[in-house]
Please model this.
Amino acid sequence: MNIKATLLASAVALTPAFAVAQDLTIGFSQIGSESGWRAAETTVTKQEAEKRGIDLKFADAQQKQENQIKAIRSFIAQGVDAILLAPVVATGWDEVLEEAADAEIPVVLLDRTVDAPEDLYLTAVTSDLVHEGRVAGQWLVDEMAGEPCRIVELQGTTGSSPAIDRKQGFEEGIAGAEGLEIVRSQTGDFTRSQGKVVMESFLKAEGGENICALYAHNDDMAVGAIQAIKEAGLNPGEDIKIVAIDAVPDAHLAIANGEMNATIELTPNMAGPALDALEAYLADGTAPAKWIQTESKLFTAADDNAAIYEEKKNLGY
Ligand code: AHR
Model:
């Protein structure tokens, strides 16, 4: 029996035990705390669980897939009712997902996707990661209005679905715009510190005056790069245009200060839709859509970024 059938069967069989949300114990294998966005997702997930009376068992994997696999095995051994997984990379999950399926424990993916058969997880709550990259690319195309532009790219964690998809989307977004080319592209691992280090190397290799724009797969790397650009004696947001993804408070502040130009919002509240889906599924076997898509929204200097910064800064980032 595949996991879909197994999980459905078990949900029906176990309906009385799972009908009350307060009884639920859910394991959450989080990637780590590489970015402000990630920290916010952790905070929001804990708040959502508490609000619903769910006992959340939290495991921070310190950016390592092997730690995530260990955490999932430990959740299975503890007999949790369900597992939330934010997968650090896209590949290498089949075996442990099979183990969860064999134990009849539904797994919900948060914010990133995996290259595994769809029937090994209940649903994935993510944004359209390719679309985010396209929006960033299209923003730059519009901004350049036909002028040429040498672009540097800070990629997210190698092998992660956002790094793969945001790269693809951006390339699609600028395809066909003559004179726009990515001249350097390297991972900054979604961290502020690596964003700065890699931007320094881009500036050294290319010469700051030869870089027209930076596309960063997240805001934290962009914020690190802003520091590197300033230290090189250039004006971020003016000499080098900057577009990134997440819309964390510091990105709004940077845009308000004219040091960054655009960001695409990724909600840190993946847990709300994920727990809604799990509660319904565990209560009566209601199967959610395989993909629960969260919204993406572009913010630019045209928005009131100072006010948005004030609103967002207390939200767990
Ligand atoms: O998977 C979502 C990405 O992971 C966020 O954009 C980034 O900040 C985080 O580390």
User: Anything to note?
Assistant: Confidence is low (pLDDT under 50) at residues 1-20.
